[in-house]
Design a protein that fits this description.
The chain has 303 residues and is of the alpha/beta class. It has nine helices and twelve strands. It has an eight-stranded mixed beta sheet with strand order 7-6-5-8-9-11-10-12, sandwiched between helices. Strands 1-2-3-4 form a four-stranded antiparallel beta sheet, covered by helices on one side. The protein is globular, with a radius of gyration of 18 Å.
């Protein structure tokens, strides 16, 4: 999900966000769709260049930006950083994405890896409908969308995934039940033996629970990498349920190799060179988030 200045969110199941605030429908933009869903106010805006933006409230953070018919046109910086998970996964064949938004990330991955099975789950049926009607999201034999709470979907899942992308936001942040230790433990159980998790969260600037979120990942997984995203308030987390460490140079090398081999329009090696942090050895002074939210627990807010 996107905005004009880059902004993004994480918490209940099903949507994406990148830090960006923009004026609602300037003169050169038009509102194609606006409806109150059970979870958000779903708004689709198109600019004069044909780019379509998904928002969950007027003047709110941008959830997705899509150029219909061109899945390689990744406007939001976070969307170019999410595929970093490919560096750590060995020949992934089956992935899950929690949070559909306009379908930017699943559309990009499906274009470059058409044989990879991609399941996408979003809690909001109106978001899934809008992705199909306005953002060119099309399902087929290997790309499927499910309307469900991401946590429930994962906890009931009988199959295992090589990569699980956590990119679900509401209008404010990641839904709390998608950030707790219990949830991340369920995600771990849904991974193949060599599987990994990729999470998208907002930084401390707009997310009071940032340290607690990262600390919770540390508590559940043996390895954790945090990638700063240039030009964005997003942080991309790569969590691995086994020991070992990949140094920055090796991550960048593999990222550049994948980008070149798959014909990406951008070089993921730049993401690694700029934003690599081996968070396994970093200290985050915060409590691990648990299902029973303490009284008075602050809720993360979007910028």
């Amino acid at each position: 999900m996107h905005r004009a200045k880059w902004s993004r969110t994480l918490l209940p199941l099903g949507i994406v966000a990148v830090l960006a605030i923009c004026a609602f429908a300037p003169a050169d933009e038009k509102v194609l769709y606006e409806k109150d869903s059970p979870y958000n106010t779903v708004i689709v805006i198109e600019d004069e260049a044909g780019l379509r933006t998904l928002q969950f409230e007027r003047d709110g953070a941008i959830q997705s930006v899509v150029k219909v018919g061109d899945p390689d046109h990744l406007v939001l910086p976070y969307a170019r950083a999410m595929p970093m998970g490919l560096v750590y996964a060995e020949k992934p064949e089956r992935i899950l994405i929690v949070g559909l938004g306009g379908g930017t990330v699943p559309g990009f991955l499906h274009k470059h890896f058409p044989k990879m099975v991609i399941d996408v789950v979003d809690i909001d049926p109106d978001v899934v409908d809008v992705a199909r009607r306005f953002f060119g999201f099309k399902e087929d034999a290997t790309l499927r969308a499910f309307v469900d709470d991401g946590r429930g979907f994962i906890e009931r899942s009988e199959g295992l995934y090589d990569i699980i992308f956590l990119d679900a936001f509401d209008r404010e942040n990641i839904p709390y039940h998608l950030a707790t230790r219990e949830f991340l433990a369920a995600v771990r159980r849904a991974l193949t033996p060599k599987g990994i998790v990729v999470g998208n969260i907002w930084s401390r600037y707009s997310n009071p629970l940032y340290d607690a979120m990262v600390r919770t990942y540390q508590d559940v997984y043996e390895q954790l990498y945090v990638f700063d995203v240039l030009g964005s308030g997003n942080k991309i987390l790569v969590a691995i349920p086994r020991k070992g460490k990949m140094e920055r140079a090796e991550v960048a090398r593999r990222a550049r190799e994948i980008s070149k081999r798959e014909g990406f329009r951008f070089d993921m090696g730049d993401v690694a060179a700029y934003g690599y942090n081996y968070a396994t050895e970093m200290t985050f002074r915060a409590e691990v988030l648990k299902d029973k939210q303490p009284a008075g627990q602050a809720k993360a807010k979007s910028p």
